[in-house]
Design brief:
The chain has helices at 2-44, 48-72, 75-86, 94-112, 116-119. It is elongated, with a radius of gyration of 18 Å. The relative contact order is 0.13. With 120 residues, it is an all-alpha fold. The chain is 86% helix and 0% strand. The mean pLDDT is 89. Helix 1 (2-44) runs antiparallel to helix 4, helix 2 (48-72) packs antiparallel against helix 3 and helix 3 (75-86) runs antiparallel to helix 4 (94-112). The two termini are 33 Å apart. The longest helix has 43 residues, at 2-44.
Amino acid sequence: MKRVWFAVVFILLSAGLCIYEQYYVKTSCENMIQILEQAQEFEEAKDSENRNKKIDELQSYWKSRNDFLFAFSEHSTLDELAQYIRSLKAAHSMKSSLEETKALVLVFYEDARISFSNIL
């Protein structure tokens, strides 16, 4: 009987961790998308000072979430996303770099979320 309870506790713990991981990834991606959209608005308004503040905010947010996201997710997508976030200020075309970074965040979220296609 102890084995059954151990299995039940293990399954509940695994389900809880999976739910927490999905919540963490979703909120992280939503916040990064929000910051990127604000940076895009400042870029369109030719306000480079506020745009750079948003990029700094994104980079510090990324640093705070980076290690934990690497524990959950595929590293190749995160490596590419990290590279784009770290090099945003040095980009030649800021508008396209912001758009590409936003697209990578969306790709990462689609790859990390639980869906039928991701399970297969």
